Amino acid sequence: MQISFQAPAASLVALAGTGRQGDAELTLSFADQVQVAPLLRALKAKVFHRGNRVYSVGWSTTREHATTQAAEDFLITHAEAITPATGTLTFTKADATTWTLNPAVVAISSSRRIGVTTIHTYQAQGTKS
Prior knowledge:
This protein is mostly beta strands. The chain is 11% helix and 59% strand.
């Protein structure tokens, strides 16, 4: 699966599944807004489903680099490529179908290096477009 993030007026950032990147482990959850209205003297409260679904997506991926220096350089500069901006997060499956969150924000990114390999874990939130 390929995962990419595009913020307005910024370059497309490939976050998984392209070039020398490993496959993504993907987790997905969502939360809807629910309003509970306790009514005066009623036996039960009223519950209203308000929609406004927000998806939380997490994934991990690895990248192979030519040298340890290249891996270190990528590790340091990669965080800058994912500026805290609102954009479009696109998931492209093997059969080329896509699933998109727009608007979306990559809220958490964690990276580490082992030899010439960098390992990245991401958390994003957004709504389905």
